[in-house]
Amino acid sequence: MTTTVQPSAVGPIADELTADFYHYESLLPDEERKLLLTARSLMRDRVKPLVNESWARGEFPRELIALFRDSGLAGLPYEGYGAHRPAVSNLLSGMLALETARTDASVSTFFGVHNGLAMYSIHAGGDQEQRDRWLPAMAAMDKIGAFAMTEPLGGSDVAGGMRTTARREGGTWVLNGAKKWIGNATFADYVVVWARDVDDNHVKGFVVEKGTPGFSPVKIENKLAFRIVENAEITLTDVRVPEADRLQNIGSFRDVAEILRATRGGVAWQALGVMVGAYELALDYARERHQFGRPIGGFQLVQDLLVKSLGNITASWGMLVQLARMQDAGIFHDEHSALAKAFVTARMREVVAWSREVFGGNGILLDHDIARFFADAEAIYSFEGTREMNTLIVGKSITGRSAFV
Where does the record place the Acyl-CoA oxidase/dehydrogenase middle domain (predicted)? Predict the structure, then answer.
């Protein structure tokens, strides 16, 4: 039996996204593709003109929050909570992460932290009262979220080595410690803070509101990547949080791992978006840049770089489409998202390097955009689990033996 991929009725596919060589977008139903095209227009027309200046300043353009609020793109993965529509598929959620990262990885990270890490922590880890209390305002982007897990002295080992503590005093919890690299935290209204309960030694989650005494976020400066993301180092000094603001369905790090399993796949989609954006920039440049009397796109070595990049994109896209289908079917596990994150981010590193190479000396200029993609790729390669850590998750799955130290 032969299956033919039919183009969407919404409009042409390949003409709008040249990197979609195998027409993966045609897998979306028309209603979902309309949302994707809305995001595409928004990123191209309203966001892209701001990103290079914002990247150079190292500031998030906060005027975009009102724009995103009015776009209808916030809170899409969640049904209800003021959304007035069904939740979208994991495939569309992934392609939206791709689409935003195709323009800028930092803006894509803003969405990933708010829509993904923060909102999903409350959706999965909170009880119904907490979901009803916090998610409607977050889905409307009237309130912005952040996710505070990584610590100054703890990254990959945070599961067993979390130093931030929570001590219960009657109906209140007292938090002490520090967090680092927390995106959105300089302006977020709600920050999901993870801390180790000193009584049972288990990790628990707390929603800390902006302005809570003892909660002090300071913006991290002098970054060479993700400059638009306002990462913060947070100090928590006797921060008092009511029991009602502790995520009631989180009992240990095992519950937190369920959240990370879901969001790690989103980072792989983001890496794919960076690949797509870099490749398209290189392709356009190869068509326009003339050397030796003709466009460099006619040179064999340049075509080799472009085709290798397109191969990485197409292979990664196919992997992520199947991962999204497994998520929708509820049959994916840690090792599936871990393999995607490890594989796709490694391919991303290759593509941004090859794409920058097409630009020659111009590739180090922010004016041509590609330098921003090249730098930002390094951040994506490292966060949500390094390649090495994700490799060990997959290695344990396929061999049945843990190689973790």
Answer: 146-239
